[in-house]
Design a protein that fits this description.
CATH topology: Nucleoside Triphosphate Pyrophosphohydrolase
Cofactor: Mg(2+)
Strand content: 25-35%
Number of strands: 8
Bound molecules: 8-OXO-2'-deoxyguanosine-5'-triphosphate
Structural class: alpha+beta
Catalytic activity: 8-oxo-dGTP + H2O = 8-oxo-dGMP + diphosphate + H(+)
Domain Nudix hydrolase: 11-146
GO molecular function, one term: 8-oxo-GDP phosphatase activity
Number of helices: 2
Protein name: 8-oxo-dGTP diphosphatase
Length: 149
């Protein structure tokens, strides 16, 4: 008789994303970022952020990613709860994302790393960019939070 090892469940990696708005207390615009890589995702628009490193807390990862990618400091607001346990949003079979609202407290966002364009989108313009497919339900959940300027 041979012993069989059950197939390993691939670990799901946590990604952090910032729904950066112009003003946390009265948001009217959302910051979208256009990815440059990998080629399969290049040109897709997303929330700035990235993978949480081993041993790193998600909120520390969020501040680090936003500093690296956009060169700004942020104040983090409330969580935008997703449908998965832990209030995360499904991305792929390998990734899920936790999303917070945030606003810039220092600096001017610039596409320093991983993106080649940023755009502030008003509530009625959220779909003028081509969001990555996994971001569409997140954008739908954000839309009612934005008021017309
Ligand atoms: N940051 C971010 N990633 C997203 C979004 N939507 C989405 O499907 N993804 C995917 C793209 C990637 O496969 C994965 C996140 O990886 P990433 O490339 O942003 O992470 P990272 O900055 O830490 O990159 P790296 O250092 O590992 O290259 O999640 C989104 O809105 N924001």
């Amino acid at each position: 008789m041979t012993s069989q090892t059950p197939p390993a469940t691939p670990a799901v990696r946590l990604v952090v994303g910032a729904a950066i708005v112009d003003d946390l207390s009265s948001p009217t615009r959302l910051l979208a970022a256009r990815r440059t890589e990998p080629s399969a995702l290049a040109g897709g628009w997303e929330l700035p952020g990235g993978k949480v490193d081993d041993g790193e807390s998600p909120i520390v990862a969020l501040h680090r990613e936003i500093d690296e990618e956009l060169g700004v400091r942020i104040s983090v607001g409330r969580l935008l709860p997703g449908p998965l346990p832990g209030a995360t949003w499904p991305l792929t079979d390998r990734f899920e994302m936790i999303v917070w609202l945030a606003e810039v407290t220092e600096g001017e966002p610039a596409p320093l790393e991983d993106h080649d364009e940023l755009r502030w989108l008003a509530a009625d313009r959220l779909h003028e960019v081509g969001w990555l497919p996994a971001d569409l339900p997140i954008v739908e959940a954000l839309a009612p939070l934005l008021t017309a300027a």
